[in-house]
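Q: Convert this sequence to structure tokens.
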Amino acid sequence: MKDFEHLMSVWQDQSAHDKLSVDEVLKQVKKGIKDITNQLYWGIVAMVAVLVLTFIILFFFVFQSWLTYVGIVIMMITMLLYAVMIIRNYRILNKRDATLQPTDYLQDLKQYQRNRATTNGWFYYIYVLLISLGLSLYFIEILSNSSLPYKVTVYGLSILWLLFLTFYYKKRVFKSEEEKLNLMIDRLERLQGQFE
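A:
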């Protein structure tokens, strides 16, 4: 019985040393969220710019083939869906202040994490597939009068770019964001546990 009491006292002393400073945790969480929201903000800006450019191409350029229009529409709808998802995630992170309601903010972070997992999972691959399909249909007419080496170069660079985004960039960026998010959620949960 003495060993158990000794073990309990050591364990309680250790947890006392692991207590987190509320101000420090909230400051770190706010900094981490600011980094993520900045990335989302610039992603929204870039997506809106590309959507505007695609809209201009669709409505102010004349194409001979209906496949070109189908390709552009596929790309626009896909980009619009992705932009809506990014905006929704941005709003989740910006709707509350972490310092005012840390418990509610923790729930928002968990919701953002679930949304991001969906975006990073199956939706990203569908996004890349549809963008690739739209570009392929668009390039049929655009490159119809080009030489074979030019066509091979354009298609090859497009394929390489999409493969780079899918298999390297996606893993690197999303993994980094996921690690930051997990760290923030863990800190907020530990902080919440200190007050229960």
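The two ends are 28 Å apart (CA to CA).
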